Amino acid sequence: MQCQGGRVLVRYVQAHELTFVVLRYEGQTYGLAPAVSGSGSRYVGLAGLDTASGLEWWEHQGAGSLSRYDPQTGETTPLLQDCKLRS
Known about the structure:
This protein is mainly β. The protein is 0% helix and 71% strand. It has strands at residues 2-4, 6-7, 9-15, 18-25, 28-35, 41-50, 53-60, 63-69, 76-84. A hairpin with a 1-residue loop joins β1 and β2 (6-7). 23% of the residues are buried. It comes from Deinococcus proteolyticus (strain ATCC 35074 / DSM 20540 / JCM 6276 / NBRC 101906 / NCIMB 13154 / VKM Ac-1939 / CCM 2703 / MRP).
């Protein structure tokens, strides 16, 4: 996907009745599990860019965003925004 700020490769994987996300960002591969979302589809992985934070992928209405996720506070810091499939 092409995003404001860079690119990310996102693959949705169906396992039983759950969907997981495997994403590739800056040469690393991460696995993210479904998380509670008020709107859209949200996935969180606790092992992120460093050992103190995880990653959050949030997709809503055809666009996605990737953020650094702090599991202690629940706060996020945007990394990539407005991610869309290339046409």
